[in-house]
Amino acid sequence: MGGKGVFCSARLGRRCRLADIRLRYSRSNMNNFHTIRLVLGDQLNREHSWYKNIDDGVLYVIAEIHQEATYVTHHIQKLCSFFAAMADFAQSLKADGHTVQHYSLDETVQYESLGHMIRSLCEHYGVENFDYQAPDEFRLMEQMKNLDLGPQFQITCYDTEHFLLPQDEISQIINAGKHNRMESFYRKMRKRFNILMDADQPLGDRWNFDGENRKKLKPADLAAVPEPLLFSNDVGEILRRIEKHQIKSVGEATDNLPWPINHLQAMQLLHFFCQHCLPNFGRFQDAMTRHGENRWSLYHSRLSFALNSKLLHPMQVIETAIEYFDRTDSSVDLAQIEGFVRQILGWREYIRAVYWANMPGYAQLNELNAQRDLPEYYWTGKTKMACMQQAIDQSLNYAYAHHIQRLMVTGNFAMLAGVNPDQVDDWYLSVYIDAVEWVEMPNTRGMSQFSDGGLIATKPYAASGSYINKMSDYCSDCHYSVKERFTEQACPFNSLYWHFMQRHGDTFSRNPRTAMAYRTWEKMDSDVKRDILARAEYCLLNIESL
Ligand code: FAD
Ligand code: SF4
Predict the structure, then answer these.
(1) What is the DSSP letter of 373?
(2) N or C terminus of the chain: which is more exposed, having fewer CB within 10 Å?
(3) How many Å lie between the centroid of ligand 2 and the Cα of residue 473?
């Protein structure tokens, strides 16, 4: 083990002309580190101030650990992406001259938890300090706060230097337990960071171009959709390791991982997006198609993994996109760039702020008292509902579905059917490449399931089949008929929508944003209403075979 300070600096002075590498070898051999700094898998920020100076007394630790690989059943591509990005990050720190220990599952199998590993490493290296960056997840933050290393170790928590809204300002901007409007938050952020502003007014005199961003993809539009830029990162070794350690996973594995695993690849993806997708980003943001075989992400950026693992900084993404918009020959108009900036500067920062303002209670909210089990086809895609099959298959194959597939297809169905939000959360946390709790949970439990009683959304995102038909080409190829409401062939979304609205009439009939639906219901023939509700009951009773 060796005590601290064993390595004598006078002796070092005589040898200091030896090659760096030999020096580092001898130092680490003598365990002369004063500090261990832990880098978690979603803290791969090369621009962090930690890395500005090289200090041979600092040991950076990057570790694949069982606790993180198993706290939920992850998509196999998500596991591979995080592990590959962590290994690449460790390599790049080493190449810059930092001292790094990258531990694989093989080496950490002995530790029963993250805390256990940290304690063991601190004792083993005899350091005085343990530093970490504040985790984005409540679960991990609690673990770090409760770390008990003993009085001989100084523990210091650092900011991740990633988010635009400082953590300590969240409580001034977001009221815990109350609805906070995303739009107001977003406008404040636009002003604060002077993004798309003309003095104190929004560029183009409008804050929001959402109304222009709801186009369906017609067959003629499909050919113009770019094929996504996919990488081919060899993760064969990682896959074997995951198998060897019997880490359970879901989804389609691939030896050639298509996701970016370092800053360079993430920048390539960002430029690809700005060049090929941004010109149509907002316009087709909500569109869905079953003809997307090799164009499955449409005009979306697929930057969420790079952002959430911190390979990319949100301001770098925003500024790069705005550079493309600012070019004199730009094909990006204001509605497209505003739509994109809104996602990163608005939604992403807002969601994180709502999460931290409301945790830990948020994880227990179940305002609509939804108790049904998640149907098995969420894990297999084996359903006759074409929209669900498409969204689930795509999620299992690519670890990806875009926002409207998540919100208005799989999320909408789970809410209409009254599925327990714990199980819905588990599913979303499992299947997506970008799924980390701080962003997954408010989107799922809040925005898509209304389980938070409206802390995020002002109305439930509940829709019948006609919305899905309007935004996609799924229905024309479905076992069910989107035009029918109560026959055997009727689209399950249609009757379930009305059943949901009736079940929760007390909550939603007085809500101005949903009151119209109740007026429509009132005007319906009573036989039709009875038949619709009976069809919904049938669907719920036979939910596994829909
Ligand atoms: P784009 O459409 O290209 O958008 C650009 C970026 O904006 C995204 O990369 C993302 O960083 C950000 N963004 C857009 N919408 C949101 C949003 N609502 N919340 C936060 N950031 C947003 N996003 C995650 O990053 N992780 C999740 O686990 C996650 N779970 C979700 C669960 C549900 C039920 C829903 C409805 C949405 C969820 N989202 C999640 C938000 C959003 O669907 C994804 O960020 C987006 O689909 C990622 O694909 P993209 O990078 O191509 O996004
Ligand atoms: Fe989905 Fe209904 Fe359309 Fe089928 S008919 S694809 S179930 S919305």
Answers:
(1) P
(2) N
(3) 10
With the most atoms of ligand 1 within 8 angstroms of its CB, the residue from 303, 403, 447 to mutate is 403
What is 406-461 written as a DSSP string?
A: IIIIIIHHHHHHTB-HHHHHHHHHHH-TT--HHHHHIIIIIIIT-TTSSSS-SS--
Ligand nearest to the CA of 408: 1
| Collapsed DSSP state (helix, strand, coil) of residue 118 | helix
Look up residue 95 and give its two tokens: 């190449």
Q: Which two tokens stand for residue 139?
A: 């679960």
**What one-character-per-residue DSSP string does 133-196 give?**
EPPSSHHHHHHHHT----TT-EEEEE--S--SS-GGGHHHHS-TTS---HHHHHHHHHHHHT-S
The position carrying tokens 């209403």 is: 529
pTM: 0.93
Tokens of 309: 């693992």
421-471 confidence digits (pLDDT tens): 999 999 999 999 999 999 999 999 999 999 999 999 999 999 999 999 999
Measuring from each residue's beta carbon to the nearest atom of ligand 1, which residues come in under 6 Å? Answer: 297, 300-304, 307-308, 343-344, 347-348, 351, 402-403, 406-407, 411, 428, 432, 434-435, 439-440, 443-444, 447-448
Identify which ligand lies nearest to the alpha carbon of 496: 2
Read off the DSSP letter of residue 227.
P
